[in-house]
Amino acid sequence: QEAIEFALQNNVNSINASKDIEKGRHLINENIGSGLVQINGNAQYNYNIKPPVFIFPNVLGPNPNPDEFVAIDAAPLNSMTASLTASMLVVSGQYFIGIQTAKTFLELTKQQKLKTDREVKEQVYKSYYLVLIAGESERILDSSLKIVNRSVFETEQLYKEGLIEELDVEQLKLIQYNTQDAYNQIKQSKELAIMALKFQMGYPLEKEIQLTDKFDNLIQASQ
């Protein structure tokens, strides 16, 4: 159960399915928001380091003299303008279709998430089970190999004493070889099963993982 829960949080397919649901929710919000009041604001600030000026003859001053000129600022040193506009979508069939489409998309992503989670659970269960089967097979073959190795040693001693034929020793060595080969293969299969389990869980491949459920427990649970 811990492996399954970890996978639902870290499996790539489960993560992507969850992101699709979030996309669906954002899509609904975007479509709804497009029909609400839209407010746009704008502000502009100007600072004139050296304001422009107009040059006029001095005919209006306290001491008018047409031969003299006076400078009048053409723009203030500081100025700021601001504007605010508001708009709203009144009636649009496309607006309501867009909202319904987004809701449909969200519902589909939720269904896909449920399907993905079921697939992830099944894959993790199978991978976990294969690791336990490989481990149980490794344990049985290891025990058998120890028995065969002891038998080969005892048979070789009997052969040296002349009590049995050489063929008997060779036949037992062939069994020893086959048992050793099967043991090596099941060890490799177990390592591959562990890697497959880690991959399905989204577990770091370089980290060790300890399976807490036992083979016998899962056999009893399945009965």
Concise overview:
With 223 residues, this protein is of the alpha+beta class.
Strand order of the largest sheet: 1-4
Helix fraction bin? 55-70%
Number of strands: 4
Separation, N- and C-terminal Cα atoms = 18 Å
Explain how this protein is built.
With 223 residues, the chain is α+β, with helices and mostly antiparallel strands. The chain is built from five helices and four strands, in the order ααββββααα.
Secondary-structure blueprint:
Layout: H1 2-10, H2 12-33, E1 38-47, E2 53-58, E3 65-73, E4 78-87, H3 93-160, H4 166-201, H5 215-222
Antiparallel strand pairs: 1-4, 2-3
Features:
alpha+beta; 4 strands; two-stranded antiparallel ribbon
